[in-house]
Amino acid sequence: MQPATSLLPVPLAPELSLHLANGSAGLFDLTGGEFHSDRPPPFWAFVWAGGQALARYLLDNPHEVAGRRVLDVATGSGIAAIAAARCGATAVEASDIDPAAVTAAHRNAAANGLTLHDHVESPEVVLAGDVFYSPASAPQMTALMRAARRKGASVLVGDPGRGYFPHRLFELVTEYDVPVPASLEETESLRTGVWRMR
């Protein structure tokens, strides 16, 4: 069963709208309070702080992606991918381990009059928001990003201070106070950095 969503403007990037969970629903409210290891919770039904920060940064600095091939990993709602497409990237792929997230990203792109691609060959920019949240995901994300850097891609990450972010590999580009749902973060705002991999 898919959670109920409404097309809403993104708090930090109101130029863009996404199909987001209604009201004050929390992540596991949308799964009936249950966790199934074979089925990820609907992360894509929310716009997380790291993705919002990346979107805001790209919208204010379109030169980072304009005319370039872009891969957004762990896309969730697709907000960073959609911002990149809006800024004139030649092709943008939204990837995620959850097929429902990729579907949601394409749906959200269409709601903004934009198109995402199913596969982008040799991305020149890699984006990732809120991916360093667990000891399992952090090493995988780090390896993926380091491989992209070795191939010459620029890597931009949005991170609101998640516990497993490898600071030593990145330099801070800018920071934002990002509005977030209290039902997700137990606060209404998170100071979130946009970081560039060294």
Protein model, in words:
The chain has 198 residues and is of the alpha/beta class. It has one domain: 3-Layer(aba) Sandwich (Rossmann fold), CATH 3.40.50. 26% of the residues lie in helices and 25% in strands. The chain is built from 5 helices and 8 strands. The strands form 2 sheets. It has a 6-stranded mixed beta sheet with strand order 4-3-5-6-8-7, sandwiched between helices. Helix 1 runs parallel beside helix 2. It is globular, with a radius of gyration of 15 Å.
Range of strand content: 15-25%
Named at the architecture level, the CATH assignment is 3-Layer(aba) Sandwich
The largest pleated sheet is described as: 6 strands, mixed
- What structural class do you assign from the helix and strand content? alpha/beta
Helix content: 25-40%
Give the CATH topology: Rossmann fold
The unreliable regions are none
Strand order of the largest sheet: 4-3-5-6-8-7
Q: Which geometry do the CA atoms define?
A: globular
Overall mean pLDDT: 93
Order of helices and strands: EEHEHEHEHEEHE
Number of domains: 1
The CA-CA distance between the termini, in Å, is: 42 Å
Q: Radius of gyration in whole Å, from Cα?
A: 15 Å
CATH domain class: Alpha Beta
Number of helices: 5
Beta strands, count:
8
CATH superfamily: Vaccinia Virus protein VP39
